[in-house]
Amino acid sequence: MKIIIIGGVAGGASCAARLRRLDEKAEIIMVERGPYVSFANCGLPYHVGNVIEKESSLLIGSEQMFKGMFGIDCRINCEAIAIDAANKTVDLRDTKTGTVTTEPYDKLVLAPGAASVHPPLPGIGLPGIFHVRTVPDTRAIREWLEKGTDFLAGMSNYVGIQMVKPVTRAVVVGGGFIGLETAENLIHRGFEVTLIQKGPQLLGPLDPEIACLVEGHMQRHGLKLVLDDGVAGFKQLDGGALEVQTSSGKNLTADVVILAIGVRPETSLAKSAGLTIGERGGIVVDEHMVTSNPDILAVGDAVEVTDFGTGEQSLIALAGPANRQGRIAADVICGRDSKYRGTQGTSIIGLFGGAAAWTGISEKTLIRKGDTDYEKLYFFGNSHAGYYPGAQLLGFKVIFRKSDGKLLGAQALGADGPAVDKRISTFAAFIQMGATIHDLEEAELCYAPQFGSAKDPVNFAGMIADNILSGAMPVCHWDTVDGAFLLDVRNPPELALESVPGALNIPLPQLRSRLGELPKDREIKVFCRSGQRGHYATRILLQNGFKATNLSGGMLTRAMHAMVSSK
Question: Most CB atoms closer than 10 Å: which of 152, 235, 250, 508?
Answer without folding.
Answer: 152
